[in-house]
Amino acid sequence: AQSVTQLGSHVSVSEGALVLLRCNYSSSVPPYLFWYVQYPNQGLQLLLKYTTGATLVKGINGFEAEFKKSETSFHLTKPSAHMSDAAEYFCAVTPSNTDKLIFGTGTRLQVFP
Amino acid sequence: ETGVTQSPTHLIKTRGQQVTLRCSSQSGHNTVSWYQQALGQGPQFIFQYYREEENGRGNFPPRFSGLQFPNYSSELNVNALELDDSALYLCASSSRDRLSEETQYFGPGTRLLVL
Prior knowledge:
By secondary structure, chain A is an all-beta fold. Helix content of chain A is 0%, strand content 51%.
């Protein structure tokens, strides 16, 4: 069985500060890992994904995430937060790219000026 | 924009009624997955359709059913609506046959309120 844990339902940072959103997963098979962002009253937008290969994955809007198998983690980071980054972020895992996604409960990011 | 569209955007129903939600997949995609997102929660997988056949189902009762059409668009039907069915319903399209299009791309969702 697969599962995702997102530590911290709310994260607040100042504009320009480092963003770190935590995600730990459980998977019995090599996982595919995803980060999605959801702006208010909208669907999910893919930020980045890890399938195989390089463990540091770069996504859109300056975000990146590192797959650490030994720590079963896939934390999302951005060096400098922007006001437009305020949104809900979801980490997800799946045994293959097109199989069902298992989502975490989400982390709401607030960015203060 | 992902090219995945859903209709309607909002819907209000009463308990016991039936509802049909629609999803048009991105061009070239043959797989549609449906998710339910309750308020304050992450999306939960309902089921997936691949080439008009159900291809996996989550922990949802049989009153949640679906269809996929030859053009790969899809419908989600919910019978005997309950208050707890109030949620944002998301569909995601992908292609199981094209490695470059494996990622699931989500539509904007349909917000259902059951009174």
